[in-house]
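Data availability excerpt. The first of two example chains:
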Amino acid sequence: MNVDTVVLIGKTGSGKGTQAKFIAEEFGYKLFSTGDNFRELRLENTPLGRRVKEDYDEGLLMPHWLASFLFQKALLGLKDGESIVFEGTGRTLPESQVFDEVCKWLRRNYVVFYLKVSDEEVIKRQQKRQRDSLDQIDKIKKRLEEYRLHTALGVEFFREKGKLIEIDGEQSPEDVQKEILAYLEK
Protein backbone atom coordinates (compact mmCIF):
# COMPACT_ATOMS: atom_id res chain seq x y z
CA MET A 1 0.00 0.00 0.00
CA ASN A 2 1.38 3.38 -0.95
CA VAL A 3 0.84 5.49 2.19
CA ASP A 4 2.68 8.80 2.26
CA THR A 5 1.00 10.24 5.35
CA VAL A 6 0.59 8.49 8.70
CA VAL A 7 -1.22 9.70 11.80
CA LEU A 8 -0.80 8.25 15.28
CA ILE A 9 -3.66 9.01 17.63
CA GLY A 10 -4.61 7.88 21.11
CA LYS A 11 -4.83 8.91 24.72
CA THR A 12 -1.98 10.64 26.50
CA GLY A 13 0.69 8.03 27.25
CA SER A 14 -0.53 5.59 24.58
CA GLY A 15 2.87 5.44 22.88
CA LYS A 16 2.15 7.77 19.95
CA GLY A 17 5.50 9.53 20.20
CA THR A 18 7.51 6.32 20.42
CA GLN A 19 5.77 4.85 17.38
CA ALA A 20 5.95 8.09 15.37
CA LYS A 21 9.73 8.22 15.90
CA PHE A 22 9.99 4.57 14.88
CA ILE A 23 8.06 5.18 11.63
CA ALA A 24 10.10 8.29 10.85
CA GLU A 25 13.37 6.40 11.32
CA GLU A 26 12.27 3.14 9.69
CA PHE A 27 10.74 4.69 6.56
CA GLY A 28 12.49 8.06 6.34
CA TYR A 29 9.29 10.02 6.98
CA LYS A 30 9.38 13.57 8.28
CA LEU A 31 8.05 13.77 11.85
CA PHE A 32 5.45 16.25 13.04
CA SER A 33 4.48 16.19 16.71
CA THR A 34 1.54 18.34 17.70
CA GLY A 35 2.59 18.15 21.35
CA ASP A 36 6.20 19.13 20.58
CA ASN A 37 4.96 22.13 18.59
CA PHE A 38 2.79 23.25 21.49
CA ARG A 39 5.58 22.65 24.03
CA GLU A 40 7.88 24.86 21.92
CA LEU A 41 5.23 27.59 21.63
CA ARG A 42 4.62 27.35 25.39
CA LEU A 43 8.21 28.48 26.06
CA GLU A 44 7.90 31.65 23.99
CA ASN A 45 7.43 34.88 25.89
CA THR A 46 4.80 36.14 23.45
CA PRO A 47 1.03 36.58 23.77
CA LEU A 48 0.58 33.26 21.92
CA GLY A 49 3.22 31.48 23.98
CA ARG A 50 1.77 32.65 27.28
CA ARG A 51 -1.76 31.63 26.24
CA VAL A 52 -0.59 28.20 25.06
CA LYS A 53 1.29 27.76 28.37
CA GLU A 54 -1.83 28.60 30.36
CA ASP A 55 -4.04 26.00 28.63
CA TYR A 56 -1.29 23.40 28.27
CA ASP A 57 -0.42 23.54 31.96
CA GLU A 58 -4.08 22.94 32.82
CA GLY A 59 -4.13 19.83 30.61
CA LEU A 60 -6.51 21.38 28.07
CA LEU A 61 -6.40 20.74 24.34
CA MET A 62 -5.36 23.70 22.25
CA PRO A 63 -8.00 25.25 19.99
CA HIS A 64 -8.63 23.12 16.91
CA TRP A 65 -7.92 26.05 14.60
CA LEU A 66 -4.41 26.49 16.04
CA ALA A 67 -3.60 22.78 15.81
CA SER A 68 -5.04 22.73 12.28
CA PHE A 69 -2.91 25.71 11.26
CA LEU A 70 0.24 23.93 12.45
CA PHE A 71 -0.43 20.61 10.72
CA GLN A 72 -1.61 22.34 7.53
CA LYS A 73 1.63 24.30 7.44
CA ALA A 74 3.55 20.99 7.70
CA LEU A 75 1.46 19.28 4.99
CA LEU A 76 1.54 22.22 2.61
CA GLY A 77 5.31 22.59 3.00
CA LEU A 78 6.16 19.05 1.86
CA LYS A 79 8.25 18.60 -1.27
CA ASP A 80 7.56 16.10 -4.04
CA GLY A 81 7.93 12.55 -2.80
CA GLU A 82 8.20 13.47 0.89
CA SER A 83 6.27 11.38 3.38
CA ILE A 84 5.27 12.48 6.88
CA VAL A 85 4.13 10.98 10.15
CA PHE A 86 1.91 13.02 12.46
CA GLU A 87 1.84 12.34 16.18
CA GLY A 88 -1.24 13.65 17.95
CA THR A 89 -2.96 15.27 14.96
CA GLY A 90 -6.73 15.04 14.53
CA ARG A 91 -7.44 15.40 18.24
CA THR A 92 -10.85 16.97 17.68
CA LEU A 93 -13.59 16.40 15.12
CA PRO A 94 -12.88 19.72 13.32
CA GLU A 95 -9.13 18.89 13.17
CA SER A 96 -9.89 15.44 11.77
CA GLN A 97 -12.22 16.87 9.15
CA VAL A 98 -9.71 19.52 8.05
CA PHE A 99 -6.91 16.95 7.97
CA ASP A 100 -8.99 14.67 5.72
CA GLU A 101 -9.94 17.59 3.46
CA VAL A 102 -6.34 18.82 3.07
CA CYS A 103 -5.03 15.31 2.37
CA LYS A 104 -7.72 14.77 -0.27
CA TRP A 105 -6.95 18.10 -1.91
CA LEU A 106 -3.21 17.34 -1.94
CA ARG A 107 -3.93 13.76 -3.13
CA ARG A 108 -2.08 12.29 -0.15
CA ASN A 109 -2.95 8.76 0.89
CA TYR A 110 -3.13 8.61 4.68
CA VAL A 111 -3.77 6.07 7.39
CA VAL A 112 -4.52 6.62 11.08
CA PHE A 113 -3.11 4.20 13.67
CA TYR A 114 -5.20 4.39 16.82
CA LEU A 115 -3.23 3.11 19.81
CA LYS A 116 -5.96 1.92 22.15
CA VAL A 117 -5.12 1.86 25.88
CA SER A 118 -7.25 1.85 29.04
CA ASP A 119 -7.37 4.82 31.42
CA GLU A 120 -5.72 2.63 34.07
CA GLU A 121 -2.78 1.90 31.76
CA VAL A 122 -2.46 5.61 30.92
CA ILE A 123 -2.30 6.54 34.62
CA LYS A 124 0.25 3.79 35.30
CA ARG A 125 2.46 4.88 32.38
CA GLN A 126 2.20 8.57 33.13
CA GLN A 127 3.03 8.08 36.81
CA LYS A 128 6.25 6.36 35.77
CA ARG A 129 7.15 9.46 33.72
CA GLN A 130 6.24 12.04 36.38
CA ARG A 131 7.90 12.98 39.66
CA ASP A 132 5.16 14.97 41.40
CA SER A 133 2.52 12.28 41.04
CA LEU A 134 -0.31 13.87 43.09
CA ASP A 135 -0.41 17.03 41.00
CA GLN A 136 0.18 15.03 37.84
CA ILE A 137 -2.71 12.62 38.42
CA ASP A 138 -5.15 15.55 38.28
CA LYS A 139 -3.56 16.69 34.99
CA ILE A 140 -3.66 13.16 33.59
CA LYS A 141 -7.34 12.86 34.53
CA LYS A 142 -8.00 16.23 32.89
CA ARG A 143 -6.28 15.04 29.70
CA LEU A 144 -8.34 11.83 29.74
CA GLU A 145 -11.49 13.91 30.13
CA GLU A 146 -10.41 16.11 27.20
CA TYR A 147 -9.80 12.93 25.20
CA ARG A 148 -13.34 11.66 25.85
CA LEU A 149 -14.89 15.05 25.08
CA HIS A 150 -12.93 15.79 21.91
CA THR A 151 -10.49 13.21 20.56
CA ALA A 152 -12.88 10.25 20.64
CA LEU A 153 -14.99 12.12 18.05
CA GLY A 154 -11.97 12.50 15.77
CA VAL A 155 -11.19 8.80 16.14
CA GLU A 156 -14.75 7.92 15.10
CA PHE A 157 -14.55 10.29 12.12
CA PHE A 158 -11.43 8.50 10.84
CA ARG A 159 -13.09 5.12 11.49
CA GLU A 160 -16.14 6.15 9.40
CA LYS A 161 -13.80 7.26 6.59
CA GLY A 162 -12.20 3.80 6.58
CA LYS A 163 -8.81 5.30 7.50
CA LEU A 164 -8.49 3.96 11.06
CA ILE A 165 -6.37 0.97 12.04
CA GLU A 166 -6.92 0.06 15.69
CA ILE A 167 -3.93 -1.38 17.53
CA ASP A 168 -3.75 -2.69 21.09
CA GLY A 169 -1.49 -0.06 22.62
CA GLU A 170 -1.07 -2.02 25.84
CA GLN A 171 1.19 -4.59 24.22
CA SER A 172 4.95 -4.05 24.09
CA PRO A 173 6.25 -1.22 21.88
CA GLU A 174 7.95 -3.86 19.72
CA ASP A 175 4.66 -5.70 19.14
CA VAL A 176 2.93 -2.42 18.25
CA GLN A 177 5.77 -1.75 15.78
CA LYS A 178 5.29 -5.19 14.21
CA GLU A 179 1.60 -4.43 13.57
CA ILE A 180 2.42 -1.03 12.08
CA LEU A 181 5.17 -2.55 9.89
CA ALA A 182 2.85 -5.30 8.68
CA TYR A 183 0.37 -2.70 7.53
CA LEU A 184 2.81 -0.21 5.99
CA GLU A 185 4.80 -2.88 4.15
CA LYS A 186 1.72 -4.21 2.34
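And the second chain:
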Amino acid sequence: MSDSSAITKIEYEILAEFRYTLRQFMSFSENAAKEVGITPQQHQALLAIKGFPGREQVTIRELSQRLQIKHHSTVGLVNRLEAEKLITRSAARDDRRKVLISLTARGHSILKKLSDIHRDELQRLSPQLRSLLGGINKLSEGEE
Protein backbone atom coordinates (compact mmCIF):
# COMPACT_ATOMS: atom_id res chain seq x y z
CA MET A 1 0.00 0.00 0.00
CA SER A 2 1.16 3.60 0.45
CA ASP A 3 4.22 4.60 2.46
CA SER A 4 1.99 5.64 5.35
CA SER A 5 1.17 2.91 7.84
CA ALA A 6 -2.44 4.13 8.02
CA ILE A 7 -4.85 2.20 5.84
CA THR A 8 -7.57 4.30 4.31
CA LYS A 9 -11.24 3.42 4.07
CA ILE A 10 -10.85 3.08 0.30
CA GLU A 11 -8.01 0.58 0.78
CA TYR A 12 -10.16 -1.47 3.15
CA GLU A 13 -13.00 -1.43 0.64
CA ILE A 14 -10.77 -2.57 -2.24
CA LEU A 15 -9.18 -5.31 -0.15
CA ALA A 16 -12.58 -6.46 1.10
CA GLU A 17 -14.02 -6.50 -2.43
CA PHE A 18 -10.98 -8.40 -3.73
CA ARG A 19 -11.31 -11.01 -0.99
CA TYR A 20 -15.07 -11.25 -1.60
CA THR A 21 -14.49 -11.84 -5.33
CA LEU A 22 -11.89 -14.53 -4.59
CA ARG A 23 -14.27 -16.18 -2.14
CA GLN A 24 -17.03 -16.16 -4.75
CA PHE A 25 -14.68 -17.92 -7.15
CA MET A 26 -13.67 -20.45 -4.50
CA SER A 27 -17.32 -21.15 -3.68
CA PHE A 28 -18.03 -21.62 -7.39
CA SER A 29 -15.06 -23.99 -7.63
CA GLU A 30 -16.07 -26.04 -4.59
CA ASN A 31 -19.62 -26.46 -5.92
CA ALA A 32 -18.38 -27.38 -9.40
CA ALA A 33 -16.19 -30.15 -7.96
CA LYS A 34 -19.08 -31.53 -5.93
CA GLU A 35 -21.33 -31.49 -9.02
CA VAL A 36 -18.94 -33.84 -10.86
CA GLY A 37 -18.68 -36.14 -7.85
CA ILE A 38 -15.33 -35.25 -6.33
CA THR A 39 -14.25 -33.14 -3.38
CA PRO A 40 -12.69 -29.71 -3.80
CA GLN A 41 -9.41 -31.10 -2.44
CA GLN A 42 -9.48 -33.91 -5.01
CA HIS A 43 -9.98 -31.31 -7.73
CA GLN A 44 -7.01 -29.32 -6.41
CA ALA A 45 -4.89 -32.47 -6.43
CA LEU A 46 -5.82 -33.37 -10.01
CA LEU A 47 -5.02 -29.84 -11.15
CA ALA A 48 -1.72 -29.82 -9.23
CA ILE A 49 -0.69 -33.09 -10.90
CA LYS A 50 -1.67 -32.07 -14.43
CA GLY A 51 -0.36 -28.54 -14.01
CA PHE A 52 2.99 -29.45 -12.49
CA PRO A 53 5.75 -27.58 -14.34
CA GLY A 54 7.55 -29.63 -16.95
CA ARG A 55 5.89 -33.01 -16.36
CA GLU A 56 2.58 -34.76 -15.84
CA GLN A 57 3.64 -36.82 -12.84
CA VAL A 58 4.42 -35.77 -9.29
CA THR A 59 5.79 -37.33 -6.16
CA ILE A 60 3.90 -37.36 -2.88
CA ARG A 61 6.29 -34.70 -1.56
CA GLU A 62 5.67 -32.43 -4.56
CA LEU A 63 1.93 -32.86 -4.26
CA SER A 64 2.14 -32.08 -0.54
CA GLN A 65 3.99 -28.88 -1.32
CA ARG A 66 1.57 -27.85 -4.05
CA LEU A 67 -1.46 -28.46 -1.84
CA GLN A 68 0.24 -27.12 1.30
CA ILE A 69 -0.79 -30.16 3.36
CA LYS A 70 1.16 -32.64 5.47
CA HIS A 71 2.70 -35.75 3.94
CA HIS A 72 0.37 -38.18 5.75
CA SER A 73 -2.67 -36.16 4.60
CA THR A 74 -1.39 -36.32 1.03
CA VAL A 75 -0.99 -40.11 1.27
CA GLY A 76 -4.62 -40.40 2.40
CA LEU A 77 -5.77 -38.14 -0.43
CA VAL A 78 -3.77 -40.16 -2.97
CA ASN A 79 -5.28 -43.38 -1.60
CA ARG A 80 -8.78 -41.96 -2.11
CA LEU A 81 -7.94 -40.69 -5.61
CA GLU A 82 -6.58 -44.12 -6.52
CA ALA A 83 -9.69 -45.85 -5.12
CA GLU A 84 -11.82 -43.57 -7.33
CA LYS A 85 -9.61 -44.50 -10.31
CA LEU A 86 -8.59 -40.86 -10.84
CA ILE A 87 -4.82 -41.44 -10.50
CA THR A 88 -2.27 -44.20 -10.78
CA ARG A 89 0.98 -44.75 -8.93
CA SER A 90 4.17 -46.02 -10.53
CA ALA A 91 7.79 -46.37 -9.49
CA ALA A 92 10.20 -43.80 -10.88
CA ARG A 93 12.66 -45.19 -13.45
CA ASP A 94 15.65 -43.48 -11.85
CA ASP A 95 14.77 -44.42 -8.27
CA ARG A 96 12.38 -47.33 -7.72
CA ARG A 97 11.74 -46.14 -4.15
CA LYS A 98 10.17 -42.93 -5.48
CA VAL A 99 6.46 -43.17 -6.33
CA LEU A 100 5.10 -41.07 -9.16
CA ILE A 101 1.44 -40.10 -9.37
CA SER A 102 -0.29 -39.43 -12.67
CA LEU A 103 -3.86 -38.98 -13.87
CA THR A 104 -5.90 -41.79 -15.37
CA ALA A 105 -8.14 -41.22 -18.39
CA ARG A 106 -11.03 -40.77 -15.95
CA GLY A 107 -9.02 -38.23 -13.95
CA HIS A 108 -8.17 -36.34 -17.16
CA SER A 109 -11.82 -36.33 -18.22
CA ILE A 110 -13.09 -34.94 -14.92
CA LEU A 111 -10.29 -32.35 -14.75
CA LYS A 112 -10.97 -31.22 -18.33
CA LYS A 113 -14.66 -30.73 -17.57
CA LEU A 114 -13.87 -28.73 -14.43
CA SER A 115 -11.14 -26.71 -16.12
CA ASP A 116 -13.47 -25.71 -18.96
CA ILE A 117 -16.07 -24.30 -16.59
CA HIS A 118 -13.40 -22.67 -14.40
CA ARG A 119 -11.90 -20.95 -17.44
CA ASP A 120 -15.36 -19.61 -18.34
CA GLU A 121 -15.90 -18.34 -14.79
CA LEU A 122 -12.48 -16.66 -14.71
CA GLN A 123 -13.23 -14.98 -18.03
CA ARG A 124 -16.50 -13.72 -16.54
CA LEU A 125 -14.70 -12.40 -13.45
CA SER A 126 -11.70 -11.05 -15.35
CA PRO A 127 -12.90 -7.43 -15.75
CA GLN A 128 -13.76 -7.20 -12.06
CA LEU A 129 -10.44 -8.76 -10.99
CA ARG A 130 -8.48 -6.46 -13.32
CA SER A 131 -10.26 -3.45 -11.90
CA LEU A 132 -9.60 -4.50 -8.31
CA LEU A 133 -5.95 -5.29 -9.00
CA GLY A 134 -5.61 -1.94 -10.76
CA GLY A 135 -7.04 -0.23 -7.69
CA ILE A 136 -4.63 -2.09 -5.43
CA ASN A 137 -1.70 -1.13 -7.69
CA LYS A 138 -2.72 2.53 -7.70
CA LEU A 139 -2.92 2.55 -3.93
CA SER A 140 0.47 0.88 -3.57
CA GLU A 141 1.94 3.59 -5.80
CA GLY A 142 0.51 6.23 -3.49
CA GLU A 143 -2.31 7.36 -5.77
CA GLU A 144 -5.76 7.99 -4.34
